[in-house]
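2.7 Reproducibility. Because tokenized structures are sensitive to small changes in the input, we list the exact sequence used for Chromosome partitioning protein ParA, including any N-terminal residues retained from the expression construct. No trimming or masking was applied before prediction.
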Amino acid sequence: MTTTISVINQKGGVGKTTTVINLAARFAELGKRVLAFDLDPQGNLSTVLSGGRYEFNMTVADLFDKPKRVDIQATIIQGEANKEPIPNLYLVPADIRLSKVIEQSLTQIHRERILMRHLDKLDGQFDIILLDCPPNLSLTSTNAMMAADMFLIPVDGGSFSLNGLADLLDALEEVKETENVPYFAFRNERAKQNKLINEFLDEQLKGLRDRVGTNDKSGVLNSCIRREESIGQASVTSMPLRYYRPSALATMDYKELATEVLNKINELQR
Ligand SMILES: Nc1ncnc2c1ncn2[C@@H]1O[C@H](COP(=O)(O)OP(=O)(O)O)[C@@H](O)[C@H]1O
Ligand SMILES: [Mg+2]
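Resulting structure tokens (single pass, no recycling of outputs):
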């Protein structure tokens, strides 16, 4: 059974792409067949997981441009790190054409279901599909919402806003046509030294726990990812952190996060 997880937050720079890179690598290490899907025209995920490439023959732009004629299989490439294939890890890259193509898709019927229909054709080929969303709530994000079974929402101290989160949750509930959307917020870039921000965020996230109310499928994860320079350095050198610095403390954080997410997947499937 495939679980599709959308890593989503309309704010930029909160760690969506970094989360997809490192969760994908960890899930693959655990033997899960993983497809990481880049939905941001900036293509950062594509560059990192391909081991540094900037150009690709086929991308997600082609999937949106000619949904009937482009086969998703033709867009899938194997993940790479250090010029070696990463076992179990596959990627659908994005490129800058995506923004244009998405604008043109606005007139298509079933335009929010384009991605879902492509993913349906994968038919159990992957255990986990991770969608790296762009920093907005545009049609690309709506497609990700339609296609996903679960949502992971990274929040960070610097730009956190409960209003933004409320907008996102409203959009999720509307697209999924239910108030029981399984979404999980977690803290990224937790800075030990910044007590004020930490306390503020913990308080706000407690508010989110209360908002969840009767939605027992959702909540705030216990795992959080600390702020660590090696995380950014790894991405700049086009590697998941566990390849760049296996001994980094944040490598442990991603392991914990991955385990917690796998538990949530199991609960969902029950
Ligand atoms: N826990 C972290 N510690 C240090 N740097 C981080 C952390 N998470 C993300 N970053 C850095 O912050 C920047 C934005 O992260 P990114 O994943 O691209 O965010 P988004 O995809 O939400 O726009 C990147 O340069 C990334 O390397
Ligand atoms: Mg991103």
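Residues 249-269 form the longest helix (21 residues).
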